[in-house]
């Protein structure tokens, strides 16, 4: 109860400001979610698993390695960012932590299992909220339901880039060549899939990304859909007009998309 009163006072203070205090809002949300997770562990994941605990465990099992890696990344990023803000970027972490498959990461995961479960819990909550929203659309008679959007690339500093290094062309930004809209070309700062690596991996990373974004959706927009055929690559450190088109394995990508 004292914690609840304190959090409520901070919430009211944050809401009373003319401008959004993003650091305070983020910190406040984190504390609230940590309190929720503490209750969840005590009352649902305790000695006698509740029905909600079983749903949580089923979700974690279903999402498998991608969720585990993402939760590990979140915990690692939080850990290193406390040392210095610039350590938020995984390429600045100690070398032993720059790969999800390293022994150092496995040891960290073992030592910080509860914190990793916290980040899995946050994904569980978010997925449940999206699922509930999709259910509301069906109840309202919406034929399509949620219409989701899949980006053309992956931010190089993200947990996804850290997890999918073997499938991405890191050090490359995707964009567009010079045209009347932008005479200098465009570099959107997103990493593309490496077409050769995708082929070697049986296009599984592409399928996984599609599956995750189609979850709870009745339709999905594929941003810059031409990227299934060719994509403009700009090597890191170069101006946007110094890129080139790279042809993608369109037949295979369209086949995976259709599946």
Description:
The mean pLDDT is 95. α1 (2-15) packs antiparallel against α2. This protein is of the alpha+beta class and 259 residues long. It contains nine helices and eight strands. The strands form three sheets. A four-stranded antiparallel beta sheet has the order 4-3-7-8, with no helix packed on it. Strands 1-6 form a two-stranded parallel sheet. A two-stranded antiparallel ribbon has the order 2-5. The protein has helices spanning 2-15, 22-43, 51-81, 103-111, 113-139, 159-163, 195-200, 204-214, 250-258; strands spanning 147-150, 154-155, 172-176, 186-187, 190-191, 219-222, 230-235, 244-247. The protein starts with a helix and ends with a helix. The longest helix has 31 residues, at 51-81. 52% of the residues lie in helices and 11% in strands.
Supply Rg: 21 Å
Biggest sheet strand line-up = 4-3-7-8
From the spread of the alpha carbons, the general shape counts as globular
Largest sheet: 4 strands, antiparallel
- Share in helix: 40-55%
Series of secondary-structure elements, N-terminal to C-terminal: HHHHHEEHEEEHHEEEH
Overall mean confidence score, pLDDT:
95
Structural class: alpha+beta
Low-confidence stretches: none
Number of helices: 9
Number of strands: 8
Terminal CA distance reads: 51 Å
Name the beta content range: 5-15%
Key phrases:
about 260 residues; 4-stranded antiparallel sheet; two-stranded parallel ribbon; 8 strands; globular
